[in-house]
Amino acid sequence: MNTHITLKSFLVAFLLLLSFGINAQTMLSEKEETTIEDYKWRKKYINLGFVNSTMKQDGSLDLNSDLGASFSIGRTFFLNKRPIGGVLRFGIDATWFDINYTNYKMKNITNGETENNEYHQGEISMNVGPSITIKTVGKLTIHGYFRYAPSFSGLYNDDTFYGNYATFFVGGASISYCAIGLGFESRFGDCKYKEIGSSKEEVATNNKTKHNGWRTYLTFRF
């Protein structure tokens, strides 16, 4: 009787240990699978870009940028946990920090004399908007997006600084192989600048200044 009870207890303990081992192995496999999946679908990104833009204002000549650069950091939050067909995921892109700088140069000829004017213009913004990510052949990934970008825009000219809230939009796509890739995006918006530091807080122009251009960038995803 004692032998029967001991054997029965041993079998019960063995089955419990076996069940625990199977569950632990399953959890470990799922964790490893998730880690591998997260590695394949890289969520975070850092972009370093070249900027080409046009600044427009009613009653003034359009200014084309002489040079420009951008830097941004963000993350994609995927909405569907399992990729559709194993290759497609929808998401929300959140760019925590986006800085954009553009330089404009203009020549004014008055009474035969040439005067060079230079404008330094830029924005600091956050972006948010929908995105779509597609896994193609091998480790090649395509990422498309459209984002709303509330910004603070600044304009410096002739020892005077102007600034104000600006509404921008950014839309584009990138193609990456593993952690590195190239991207291209359109960027447009407008701002009604005010002189900073002036007690009168006069509007620098009665018209909105419109910005329209594109950025090409090197992206790092991890």
Give a description of the structure:
The longest helix has 39 residues, at 2-40. This protein has one helix and nine strands. The protein is 18% helix and 62% strand. The chain has 222 residues and is an alpha+beta fold. An eight-stranded antiparallel beta barrel has the order 1-2-3-4-5-6-7-9. A hairpin with a 2-residue loop joins strand 5 and strand 6 (160-177). It has one helix at 2-40; strands at 44-56, 63-78, 88-110, 113-135, 140-157, 160-177, 180-191, 194-195, 209-221.
- Overall pLDDT confidence: 84
General shape: elongated
Proportion in β-strands = over 45%
- Provide the helix percentage: 10-25%
Number of strands: 9
Number of helices: 1
- Low-pLDDT runs of 5+ residues are 32-36
How would you classify the helix and strand content by structural class? Answer: alpha+beta
Helix-strand sequence: HEEEEEEEEE
Lateral arrangement of strands in the main beta sheet: 1-2-3-4-5-6-7-9
Radius of gyration: 28 Å
